[in-house]
Amino acid sequence: TMSTAEDAEWLRWVTKQFGNIAGEDKEINLEEFKTALQVKESFFAERFFALFDSDGSGSISLEELLKALSLLVHGSETDKLRFLFQVYDVDGVPHNSLSPLAAERRGLCSTQPAAPNPAGGGSGSIDPDELRVVLGWCLRESAIALPEERLADLTLALFEAADKDHSGSITFEELREELEAFPEVMENLTISAANWLKPPVPVERSCRPRYLTRTYWHNHRSKLAFLGGYAALNLLLFTLAALQHAGLSGWLAVARGCGQCLNFNCSFLAALMLRRCLTWLRATPIAKVLPLDQHVVFHQLVGYVVLALAALHTGAHVANFSRLARQDGRHALAEYLLSARPGVGGLGGTASQTGLALQGLLVAMLAFSSPCVRRSGHFEVFYWTHLSYISIWILLILHGPHFWKWFVVPGCLFMLEKVVGLAWRRAGGLRIIEVNLLPSKVTHLVIERPQFFHYKPGDYVYLNIPAIATYEWHPFTISSAPEQQETLWLHIRSLGQWTNKLYEYFQQPEGSSPEPKPLSRSLREKRRRRWVQVGANRSQVSAKAECYIDGPYGTPTRRIFTSEHAVLIGAGIGITPFASILQSIMYRYRRRRQSCPSCHYSWCEDLRDEEMTLRKVDFIWINRDQKHFEWFISLLTKLEMEQAEQDPGGQFLEMHMYMTSALGKSDMKAIGLQMALDLLAAKEQKDSITGLRTRTQPGRPDWSKVFGKVAEEKKGKVQVFFCGSPALAKVIRGHCEHFGFRFFKENF
């Protein structure tokens, strides 16, 4: 409860908010109330409005609003439960306070409707039809689509549990008794309207930035040490080169110092993109020391450093040439910059000209490498301007007499990697055996696996499909397990220009193109029927569905099998690297399965070996809505069945599903629905939303509780692996730092 001073402050705050929402008449009508509540459906807004409108005037005054909100915010548990009961007791609600659909349902639901109550109250009990109506609106509010028979099952489960005396209706006391079985509901019972006008809780901020905390430095020690070493090396190179020319001119000393740093950084840029070498290094002890997972971020950072050094290098030379032009008097500054002069530097004295050309190319490359260009459907611009690195390296060799010494090793390795990749491509294209168009615009490609293609769970490949774009190569995580010998799986979400083209290409109906498209559905029979229709063109279909891959390349998820307690967190399509890992675990389970020849009792040997030290895996999948779960449910169902058969305890792999659009048990608009879903899941041993045994939790994870439970299990050193949006990664990283867990993020 609040103090008197807090109550007064809250009243002033509510009065101010009310003034912003109410019209000139200082009354809130139904439409203004709906807008303020920000509900998806109008049913609950209309129910709350009818209950708040105590005098039945059709509008809510400040006095009525404050009285109702005070009851919900500061009232007793009984007061809040009474309000919840009145929301579900739909009988007697005036027709003018219900939408046409709600009014129609009210008429169908109540065989003997009570007289309209101006305060929005009902008959004093909840019958099955009323409960079904409210649960139906709860489903809509939570963006959950279930068939009518499932709604009937939910209604029956909740009604049977709450109707203690089997009288055919639920009384207030029976509802209270049933809610006591859900303590988390009783603790958090609130309402959207109360939160809407509740003063915001002040955010507690630490006096120290997180970058200065001991935990941050401990968890990022390898990255910080690497950055420190990188900065120190640049400073050393600059100082040594500048001191050699300090007697000639200050500007020349700066230019030479920057030039030496550029020799190193331009070569280092190439080294950071040696993907095959980095993949090999991940399997060595060096991976524990160097932050190999951050190589793309460091590549971007070094790119900015190169541009800054190049600008300073050019500016210092221009300033020095300007000084020489003033001293000489015979040659203008333009001659120093645009004419080849022996002794200036570079091949044939062309250092000035090659330097200006390099500066222009670097600016163009950086400008067209920005995220706004790459992710706005102009990938070709990024791709072709980035190919200018070939011209830049040639110009650097012509420009700087010592650059080749720095570049020879990374340059040769880079060229070797390109030759290997080109050899893979020249070996011939791979057939796309099957294409499944899945919900949420996900394209599932089943590609024939090359004979000597070896990869680890979580690895990715670069994919090129000439029919979509001849020169574009895009990285995608392999979603099949390495133990799957014949095919590779890629699950590709339609988010950008290329991925949307891919989905639309395979979505084209038959007959819309003179040449048959390789379209197939998840059922093999449909694909066979289509090929039978094509007849002699079957080989043409296969040839048309051709692709090239370059890889595989390693990711941070390679560390999972050497963890003791791994927490895998995928958001949306971010599940794809973990799909491969979870399938690989399933294959290893099968391989270790033992059976007694006499009694046929089967058991699974300990999973831990030299390649796999896992004791526990927690898999967390967060999706926005129901349909986003559909395209991987079959895999997760198999995993659950496999573990149930081979490990009845089922504690090695735990799944946690979260649906962010669904309202939680603390929201009055979803309390009944979530209780019904819990009861039905316990009864059927199956979740109504996904069909899994694992219950789908509404809302977003409470990371403090999730990681707190992980820490309590004490299964060994905890490592958290995440694939999803950068915003969520930042949140999870902060919680990992708090609990002392190591955090690994796959670049998304």
UniProtKB/TrEMBL annotation:
SMART domains, alphabetized: EFh (SM00054)
Topology term for the membrane: Multi-pass membrane protein
Main location: membrane
Parts of the chain that traverse the membrane: 224-244, 295-316, 381-398, 566-589
Subcellular location: Membrane
InterPro entries the UniProt entry points to: EF-hand-dom_pair, EF_Hand_1_Ca_BS, EF_hand_dom, FAD-bd_8, FAD-bd_FR_type, Fe3_Rdtase_TM_dom, Fe_red_NAD-bd_6, FNR_nucleotide-bd
Domain FAD-binding FR-type: 422-559
Record-annotated EF-hand domain positions: 40-75, 150-185
Protein name: NOX5 oxidase
Species per Swiss-Prot/TrEMBL record: Jacana jacana (Wattled jacana)
